[in-house]
């Protein structure tokens, strides 16, 4: 199947006149069967993949969540769950906390990442060759595994249950982001940077006025990935933040559902929908650039 | 590297040395400081704790106990070895199954979608990517509700439509393990699919033409043209995803909480992986010493995996350039 479609496309490029109708006619019977079989398989997979998410959507509109029976559409849809969520008042506090932490961390990390990526991409220094590799290896060990160290250190410093300490812990730079951005900066034509050097630009000017503006797309991706990352971080937030008014969205939602499923399922579903949709859209936009970078990176290697 | 060597030859050593931009360390310093304080320091502190008896009983006056924690966890005759070895085996099984299944599903769908005659494939692709786009935390918690054996919609569906008995998804050891793997394949296949599609589309068409001229059948083309290229491109991304799953907290902690409980192990449940074991030992049982020791052992394992991966795949190779 793959072969026929691929060779077909070259055939088409050899005969640019070939119209859409001709392209259809030239499908052999075997290909037509293969096409419909793959369509049906894909439809089945899509239903299996999306049905669970649809259940969450239904649950968010279902006012009575004491007993849940199977249905494809909410029987007596209402916004009761959303109302309850907003009246509780906590939801917006959690969103605000997540936004505060997310924006502070994402701004700081984007800038730190940009500076190091610039150094790795455009400057010469001792340790350039193995530096990034070492950092990448080091971060195969996620911070959260040092939880005993983080927790006891924060407890001794009396810094538990503070939004500030959570921000501090999350500030750790991701070597992977540096690697990603460095790859992007490498693709900026060298001539631009050299022209700036000849014009007598300082390193800072080369960074701020040449490299950084040209790296904007990847910077945006890194910013949003960090922001979304904060929204889906639970382990540190759940450890450090202990009062309900300090909860981030993740911790709040965890407490909504765990152990009190029957009571809060509808409210949880409403909160999940409200937060997942904007984040999913951001992600969908960001991942397009990200996968391009990922695949380009490994093709190069 | 080559240009530097040439330059050395033509301009001499001093010239090459003068090209070092010392200011680079200034640009690197913010990253180095945060990495030192938030990655390296905690790792060293963790290693240090793993050699002490630091726990709730000895919060202020802990002592150095040497390798005692490691002996307890690794010696099969010690009761505490229940903490490590079964959890380690389950972690391996879980990470291998999740990565392999997600890859197979992703590759399968990518091959189906890579069909020029299927003109609506962009739509399919967008729909299939949804599990990846929903933040992992939210989808794992949602699955916890969906798989509830009393009220969950999955059992309602299986019971109402297919007439199957209620499956104890999160309360029986076997089903909980199946559920954890299943849900993580659900969450992980879109990434693999995207990577495989990218790889499929990067295969030059002349390779297919050559295969067709040689009279290769569908399977031979797939086996000798498609797979080698896809494999070469996806392997560097496949193995990091294995080490990611190896430490994937959300997978078991948010879905099952590590449960159901284990009869011969008071601390850990049936679906706890090593990472959640370290977390629980620290925060639930205040055994910082054992939590740190599990973390160090995990660190050694992850380092080994990473080393093997870098060695055999050449991932991140262009970092040397």
From TrEMBL, chain B:
GO terms for molecular function: ABC-type maltose transporter activity. It comes from Alicyclobacillus acidocaldarius (strain Tc-4-1). Part of the ABC transporter complex MalEFGK involved in maltose/maltodextrin import. Probably responsible for the translocation of the substrate across the membrane. Belongs to the binding-protein-dependent transport system permease family. MalFG subfamily. The keyword Membrane applies. It holds the Pfam family BPD_transp_1. Residues 88-309 form the ABC transmembrane type-1 domain. It comes from the Bacteria. This is Maltose/maltodextrin transport system permease protein. Its main location: membrane. Gene3D superfamilies: MalF N-terminal region-like, MetI-like. The gene is malF. The chain crosses the membrane at residues 22-51, 88-114, 126-147, 167-187, 290-310. Keywords: Cell membrane, Membrane, Sugar transport, Transmembrane, Transmembrane helix, Transport. It is found in: Cell membrane. SUPFAM superfamilies: MalF N-terminal region-like, MetI-like. One of its GO terms (biological process) is maltodextrin transmembrane transport. It is a multi-pass membrane protein. InterPro entries: MalF_N, MetI-like, MetI-like_sf. One of its GO terms (cellular component) is maltose transport complex. The keyword Cell membrane applies.
């Amino acid at each position: 199947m793959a072969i026929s479609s691929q060779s077909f496309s070259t055939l088409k490029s050899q005969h640019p006149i070939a119209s859409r109708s001709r392209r259809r006619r030239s499908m052999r019977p075997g290909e037509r069967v293969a096409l419909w079989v793959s369509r049906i398989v894909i439809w089945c997979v899509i239903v299996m993949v999306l049905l669970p998410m649809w259940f969450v959507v239904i649950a968010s509109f279902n006012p009575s969540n004491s007993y849940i029976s199977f249905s494809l559409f909410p029987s007596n849809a209402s916004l009761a769950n959303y109302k309850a969520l907003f009246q509780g008042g906590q939801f917006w506090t959690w969103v605000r906390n997540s936004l505060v932490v997310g924006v502070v961390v994402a701004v700081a990390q984007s800038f730190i990442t940009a500076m190091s990526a610039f150094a790795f991409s455009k400057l010469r220094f001792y340790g350039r060759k193995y530096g990034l590799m070492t950092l990448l290896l080091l971060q195969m060990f996620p911070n959260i595994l040092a939880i005993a160290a983080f927790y006891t250190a924060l407890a001794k410093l009396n810094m538990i249950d503070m939004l500030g300490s959570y921000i501090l812990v999350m500030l750790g730079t991701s070597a992977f982001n540096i690697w990603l951005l460095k790859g992007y900066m490498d693709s900026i034509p060298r001539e631009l940077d050299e022209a700036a050097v000849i014009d007598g630009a300082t390193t800072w000017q080369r960074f701020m006025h040449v490299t950084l503006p040209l790296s904007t797309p990847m910077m945006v991706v890194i910013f949003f990935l960090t922001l979304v990352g904060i929204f889906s971080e639970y382990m540190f937030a759940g450890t450090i933040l202990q009062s309900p008014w300090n909860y981030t969205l993740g911790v709040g939602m965890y407490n909504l559902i765990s152990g009190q499923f029957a009571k809060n399922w509808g409210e949880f579903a409403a909160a999940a929908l409200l937060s997942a949709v904007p984040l999913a859209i951001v992600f969908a936009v960001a991942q397009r650039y990200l996968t391009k970078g990922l695949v380009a990176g490994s093709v190069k290697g | 590297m080559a240009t530097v060597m040439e330059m050395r030859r033509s301009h001499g050593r001093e010239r090459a040395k003068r090209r070092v931009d010392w200011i680079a360390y200034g640009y690197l310093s913010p990253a180095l400081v945060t990495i030192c304080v938030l990655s390296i320091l905690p790792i060293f502190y963790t290693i240090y704790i793993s050699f002490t008896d630091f726990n709730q009983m000895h919060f202020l006056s802990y002592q150095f106990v040497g390798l005692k924690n490691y002996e307890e966890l690794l010696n099969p005759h010690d009761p505490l070895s229940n903490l490590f070895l079964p959890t380690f085996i389950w972690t391996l099984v879980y990470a291998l199954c999740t990565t392999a299944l997600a890859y197979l599903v992703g590759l399968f769908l990518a091959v189906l979608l890579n069909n020029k005659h299927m003109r609506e494939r962009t739509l399919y692709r967008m729909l299939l990517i949804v599990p990846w786009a929903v933040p992992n935390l939210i989808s794992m918690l949602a699955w916890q509700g969906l798989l509830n054996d009393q009220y969950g919609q999955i059992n309602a569906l299986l019971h109402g439509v297919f007439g199957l008995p209620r499956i104890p998804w999160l309360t029986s050891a076997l089903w909980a393990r199946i559920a954890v793997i299943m849900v993580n394949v659900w969450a992980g296949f879109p990434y693999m699919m995207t990577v495989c599609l990218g790889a499929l589309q990067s295969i030059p068409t002349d390779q297919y033409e050559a295969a067709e001229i040689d009279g290769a059948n569908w399977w031979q083309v797939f086996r000798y043209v498609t797979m080698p290229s896809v494999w070469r491109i996806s392997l560097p991304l496949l193995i990091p995803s294995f080490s990611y799953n190896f430490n994937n907290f959300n997978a078991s902690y948010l879905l099952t909480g590590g449960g159901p409980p284990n009869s011969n192990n008071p601390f850990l449940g049936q679906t706890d992986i090593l990472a959640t074991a370290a977390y629980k030992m620290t925060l639930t049982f205040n055994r910082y010493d054992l939590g740190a020791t599990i973390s160090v052992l995990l660190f050694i394992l992850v380092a080994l995996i990473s080393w093997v991966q870098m060695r055999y795949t050449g991932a991140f190779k262009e970092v040397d350039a």
